[in-house]
Each structure stands twice: as structure tokens, then as C-alpha cells.
Specification:
CATH topology of the domain at 32-128: Arc Repressor Mutant, subunit A
Helix content: 55-70%
CATH superfamily of the domain at 32-128: Winged helix-like DNA-binding domain superfamily/Winged helix DNA-binding domain
Order of helices and strands: HHHEHHEEHH
Structural class: mainly alpha
CATH architecture of the domain at 32-128: Orthogonal Bundle
């Protein structure tokens, strides 16, 4: 893998828009592939761990439509993800007591254990991925990517 050093970056006077788009797409795919490989050690993928993460953060339950929104995907993709998590007994579907037409995805005790195992892997992965970046660089990168993606940057 080729990395630009700071001297090369500082010497750049412009960036072709498509080169930037290509670099963003490559970086995103590369990070996801690496994270999937790391999470395989605890029998998870980035997508499955992310679903468990959102359920945990929400207190354990979310309507499928809200889970899809948090995952930035269409409802049918969230449904397929919940199908896989349910088959692994990490999530179960329960009726929404406030809306008879809605189903909630609810994390199971096994799902909480998987989330916790995945969290340690993700923390180790983050440390390795970002070890060459200063805290200020991480913050700038986060803000720029959040703005590009239409998300509000999380304050840390």
C-alpha cells in the first residue's frame, strides 16, 4: 500500500476532484475490509458489530426503520442484517408496545457479549489505524468527513 508522506502532501498544489473521490472510496473500502478481518476473530463483521453497537447505544431496542437510519441504509438492508443477527441469537424481534404495526430489534444477552468482545477489537483496531495521526489531525479528519457525509461531527 502506498502512503504519501507529509512532504509530498505539503508539496501538492491541487487535487483533482475525482482523485479525491477515488481516494475516499478506496480508503472507506480498505478500512472496512481491515475492520472485517479484525472482527472475524470474534465471529463478527463490521456491519453486524455496528448493528449491535446501535442497539446497545439505544438502550437495547430500536424499530427496524430507526436502525436502518442509524446504519445509513435502506430498511430492507437493516431487515437482512437483523435476520442474520437473529439467526445467530444476537438479536430478537419483539412487538413494539407503542405501535402494533412496528417490530423492534432487541439485543439479546448473547448479543451484548458479542458487542463487548467486538468493542475491544474495534478499540485495538482504532488505535492501530490512527496511531500515526496527532489528536488535532484526527479531529480535522473527523470534521471534514462528517461534513462531507452530511453528518454532524461528534464533539469529543
Amino acid at each position: 500500500m502506498y502512503y504519501l508522506d507529509m512532504n509530498e502532501i505539503e508539496g501538492m498544489n491541487s487535487c483533482d476532484p475525482y482523485q479525491l473521490i477515488e481516494a475516499l472510496m478506496h480508503s472507506g473500502k480498505s478500512v472496512e475490509t481491515q475492520l472485517d478481518a479484525a472482527l472475524a476473530a470474534v465471529e463478527l463483521s463490521a456491519a453486524r458489530w455496528n448493528g449491535l453497537r446501535h442497539l446497545t447505544a439505544a438502550g437495547g431496542q430500536l424499530p427496524l426503520g430507526q436502525l436502518a437510519a442509524k446504519l445509513s441504509c435502506v430498511k430492507s438492508n437493516a431487515t437482512q442484517l437483523v435476520d442474520r443477527l437473529e439467526a445467530e441469537k444476537l438479536v430478537r424481534r419483539v412487538p413494539d408496545p407503542e405501535d402494533r404495526r412496528s417490530i423492534l430489534a432487541e439485543i439479546t444477552p448473547e448479543g451484548r457479549l458479542s458487542h463487548a468482545a467486538g468493542l475491544q477489537v474495534v478499540r485495538d483496531f482504532e488505535r492501530q489505524l490512527l496511531e500515526d495521526y496527532q489528536p488535532e489531525e484526527r479531529l480535522v479528519l473527523h470534521k471534514l468527513l462528517a461534513r462531507l457525509g452530511g453528518f454532524e461531527a461528534v464533539r469529543t
